[in-house]
Amino acid sequence: MTEIINVIDQGASPAAQPANSYYERHIFFCLNERKSGEACCAQFNAQAAFDRCKIQIKAAGLSGPGKVRVNKAGCLDRCAAGPVAVVYPEAVWYSFVDLEDIDEIVESHLKNGKVVERLLTPETSGR
Ligand code: FES
């Protein structure tokens, strides 16, 4: 992870993308909802965060081929740190709290390639 962060901090493009990667980056938001009452990202406004990210990416002109794709996901199996989102190809995991956190991820990481370290999901957080 540290190596990836260093590469991004140096302003480099995501490392070694295959020629057919299509998008520069993908961000996946867990929107999983559990009817059982068990903890899940949907309980913590994950849908609003996803919606905010879509809007911000589009407004910044970052959506589309060669740019950024924002996608829904089911459970990413890191529920204890939820709500979570993950950015590829760097495989950087974020745990966010509010919509301002999403704005920061968009501006810093998705737009400028700089990881938002204060929002990184703890490495050992699983389900
Ligand atoms: S419910 Fe979101 S990671 Fe499992």
Question: What would the keywords be for this entry?
Answer:
binds FE2/S2 (inorganic) cluster, single chain, alpha+beta, Glutaredoxin, 4 strands, 3 helices, 127 residues, globular
State the shape.
globular
The hetero molecules present are: FE2/S2 (inorganic) cluster
What share of residues are in beta strands?
15-25%
User: How do the SSEs run, as a string of H and E?
Assistant: HEHEEEH
Short description:
The chain is α+β, with helices and mostly antiparallel strands and 127 residues long.
What does this molecule look like?
The chain is of the alpha+beta class and 127 residues long. It has helices spanning 2-9, 46-59, 99-111; strands at 25-30, 68-73, 84-88, 92-95. It has a single domain (2-8, 26-119), classed as Glutaredoxin. Helices cover 28% and strands 17% of the residues. β3 and β4 (92-95) form a beta hairpin. α2 packs across α3 (99-111). The protein is globular. The protein starts with a helix and ends in a 16-residue tail after the last helix. The structure holds FE2/S2 (inorganic) cluster. Residues 30, 32, 40-41, 75-79, 82, 84 line the site of FE2/S2 (inorganic) cluster.
Blueprint (SSEs and pairs):
Elements: H1 2-9, E1 25-30, H2 46-59, E2 68-73, E3 84-88, E4 92-95, H3 99-111
Parallel strand pairs: 1-2
Antiparallel strand pairs: 1-3, 3-4
Helix pairs in contact: 2-3
Bound molecules: FE2/S2 (inorganic) cluster.
